[in-house]
C-alpha cells in the first residue's frame, strides 16, 4: 500500500474528472510488477484512473477490457481476453476454442500453461487491464489467473480493478515483490484534489461547504461529485447536500452497492447501521448469531465502505455516508426492531465497560426510565473511578426534576461538582434536592439524609485550607448515612 501524496492537476477527461498526476505516476510503477491490483469500493475512481492511464499510453502495448455480468462465464471471459490482446498484438494465437466445453473442463494449471505459452511470443511490453474484475465470479477464472501469474513472462503485466479481493492468495506475490496494490486510501481525494475538482465542476461552491463536503465524504470520489452536482442543480442547503439521504446517493448505494448482496448480508448491514463501530462479539450479541465474523469478512472482501479502527484491533467502522444511508433504510424496514437493537447494544457496552457508548445507544430510545437507570449505574462506576467530568457531562443536561427526585443521580452529581470545585452549582443542587417532596424521591440514598453529608462535604472542600484532620474528618464520616457514602468518604480522605 502506498501513501496518497499531494496531487498536481493538468486537466480532465470528457466527464469532468481531474487528472491526478501522483496517481498516474503510481500506476506507471505497474511496469515493475506482475500484478497491479486497484482495490477499492464503487465510485472510488478506479475506472477513471485506468482510462486516463491508458490514454497516456496510447502508443504503448495496452490491452483493455471492462467486464460485464456475462463475463462470469469462463468461456466468455477468456474469449474476450484473447480478443483484447489481439487488438494490440495481431499475431497473438491465444487459446483454441474449437471445443469450448471440453477446454474449460480442463484443469486450471493446463489452461494457465497454454496462456503463458501463447504470451511468450509477445516480445514488447504488454499491460493487460481488466476493469470490474469483481464480475468474474467463476472460481475457474481466478484459478487460471493464479496459475498464470506464477509463470507470467516478465514483459507482461496484469492490472485488475475490482471492488472485491481476488479469490486467489496474494501472499507469494507479496513475498516475491511482484504485487502492487493501489487501494482506497491512495484513490481518495485529498483536500487539494477536492478544491480543484470543485473549481472545475462547481465553481460557485463556497469554501466552507467544499471543505465540509471533502470531510464528510472522506475523499470518496463519487460522493464528492454527487454532492457537488446536487448543489449545482438544486441549490440545497449544506445539510442536504452532505447527507447520506441525498437522492443521488440513495440511488447510487441502492443500485450499485447493495444490488447484488445476499438478503443475509443486506440485513446484517441494516442492523449494524446503528453502530458507530463494529466488532465480532458486539455484532454476534446484537443479532443473536455466530456468523458475524463471516459477515464482516464478506463486507471487507467486497470493499463495502468499511475501514478498520486504527487504535482498536478487531474493530471496524462504516463510511459515514454509507452508514447514514443504511440507517435511514433500516428505519423504514418494517421488521427491523431499531429500538431492540439499540437496547441490546447498550447492554453489551455496559458489560464491556464502555459506559458512554452504552448511554449513546440508550439515549436513542424513547425510554427515559431505562436511560436514567443505566446512567445511575454509570455514575456509580465513575464516582468510584474518579471520572467526575463524565458524571457532570451526562447528568447536568437532564431535566432538573429528573435529578431532584433521583438520589442515584443527584448524589453523584453533587459529589462530582464539589470535587471539581464548582461549589455554587453543587450548592444549587443540594438546595434543589432538599426541597423535593419526600414521596417523590427514589434511589439508594433516599433514606440516608444525603443532603446533610453533601453539605458537610461541600463546606469542608470550600474551606479545605482550614481542614482539621481530627474533628472535620469525624464530622464528614458521621454525616454518611449509607455504607456506600461512608466508603466514598474514606476514599476521598485517604
Describe the structure.
- This protein is of the alpha/beta class and 494 residues long.
- Helix content is 55%, strand content 9%.
- The strands form three sheets. It has a five-stranded parallel beta sheet with strand order 4-5-6-3-7, with helices on both faces. The chain has a three-stranded antiparallel beta sheet with strand order 8-10-9.
- Helix 14 packs across helix 17 and helix 23 (407-419) packs parallel to helix 25 (450-462).
What is the compact description of this entry?
The protein has helices spanning 21-28, 46-56, 74-88, 100-104, 108-119, 139-150, 171-175, 184-187, 191-201, 207-217, 221-234, 238-241, 247-257, 263-272, 280-287, 292-301, 320-331, 338-352, 355-362, 368-385, 388-395, 400-404, 407-419, 423-434, 450-462, 471-478, 483-493; strands at residues 9-12, 18-20, 35-39, 62-66, 126-131, 156-162, 179-183, 278-279, 306-308, 315-318.
Amino acid at each position: 500500500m502506498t501513501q496518497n501524496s499531494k496531487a498536481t492537476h493538468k486537466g480532465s477527461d470528457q466527464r469532468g474528472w481531474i487528472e491526478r498526476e501522483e496517481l498516474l505516476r503510481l500506476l506507471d510503477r505497474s511496469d515493475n510488477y506482475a500484478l497491479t491490483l486497484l482495490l477499492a469500493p464503487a465510485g472510488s475512481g478506479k475506472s477513471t484512473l485506468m482510462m486516463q492511464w491508458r490514454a497516456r499510453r496510447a502508443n504503448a502495448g495496452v490491452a483493455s477490457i471492462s467486464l460485464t455480468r456475462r463475463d462470469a462465464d469462463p468461456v466468455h471471459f477468456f474469449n474476450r481476453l484473447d480478443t483484447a490482446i489481439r487488438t494490440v498484438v495481431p499475431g497473438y494465437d491465444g487459446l483454441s476454442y474449437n471445443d469450448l466445453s471440453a477446454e474449460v473442463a480442463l484443469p486450471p494449471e493446463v489452461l494457465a500453461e497454454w496462456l503463458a505459452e501463447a504470451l511468450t511470443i509477445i516480445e514488447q511490453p504488454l499491460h493487460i487491464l481488466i476493469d470490474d474484475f469483481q464480475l468474474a465470479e467463476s472460481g475457474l477464472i481466478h484459478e487460471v489467473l493464479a496459475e498464470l501469474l506464477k509463470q507470467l513472462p516478465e514483459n507482461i503485466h496484469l492490472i485488475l480493478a475490482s471492488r472485491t479481493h481476488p479469490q486467489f492468495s496474494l501472499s507469494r506475490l507479496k513475498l516475491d515483490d511482484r504485487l502492487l496494490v493501489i487501494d482506497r486510501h491512495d484513490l481518495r481525494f485529498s483536500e487539494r484534489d477536492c478544491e480543484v475538482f470543485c473549481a472545475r465542476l462547481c465553481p460557485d461552491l463556497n469554501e466552507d461547504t467544499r471543505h465540509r463536503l471533502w470531510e464528510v465524504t472522506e475523499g470518496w470520489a463519487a460522493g464528492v461529485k454527487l454532492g457537488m452536482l446536487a448543489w449545482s442543480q438544486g441549490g440545497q442547503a449544506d445539510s442536504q447536500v452532505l447527507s447520506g439521504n441525498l437522492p443521488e446517493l440513495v440511488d447510487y448505494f441502492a443500485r450499485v452497492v447493495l444490488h447484488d448482496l445476499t438478503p443475509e448480508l443486506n440485513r446484517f448491514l441494516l442492523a449494524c447501521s446503528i453502530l458507530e463501530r463494529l466488532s465480532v462479539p458486539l455484532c454476534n450479541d446484537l443479532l443473536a448469531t455466530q456468523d458475524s465474523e463471516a459477515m464482516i469478512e464478506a463486507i471487507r472482501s467486497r470493499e463495502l465502505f468499511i475501514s478498520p479502527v486504527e487504535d482498536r484491533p478487531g474493530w471496524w467502522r462504516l463510511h459515514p455516508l454509507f452508514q447514514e444511508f443504511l440507517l435511514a433504510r433500516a428505519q423504514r424496514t418494517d421488521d427491523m426492531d431499531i429500538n431492540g437493537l439499540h437496547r441490546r447494544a447498550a447492554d453489551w457496552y455496559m458489560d464491556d465497560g464502555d459506559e458512554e457508548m452504552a448511554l449513546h445507544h440508550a439515549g436513542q430510545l424513547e425510554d427515559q426510565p431505562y436511560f436514567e437507570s443505566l446512567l445511575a449505574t454509570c455514575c456509580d462506576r465513575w464516582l468510584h473511578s474518579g471520572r467526575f467530568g463524565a458524571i457532570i457531562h451526562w447528568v447536568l443536561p437532564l431535566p432538573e426534576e429528573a435529578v431532584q427526585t433521583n438520589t442515584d443521580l443527584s448524589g453523584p452529581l453533587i459529589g462530582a461538582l464539589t470535587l471539581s470545585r464548582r461549589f455554587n452549582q453543587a450548592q444549587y443542587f443540594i438546595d434543589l434536592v432538599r426541597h423535593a417532596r419526600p414521596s417523590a424521591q427514589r434511589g439508594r440514598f433516599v433514606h440516608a439524609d444525603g443532603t446533610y453529608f453533601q453539605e458537610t462535604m461541600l463546606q469542608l472542600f470550600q474551606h479545605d485550607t482550614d481542614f482539621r484532620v481530627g474533628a472535620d474528618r469525624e464530622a464528614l464520616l458521621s454525616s454518611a448515612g449509607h455504607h456506600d457514602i461512608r466508603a466514598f468518604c474514606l476514599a476521598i480522605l485517604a
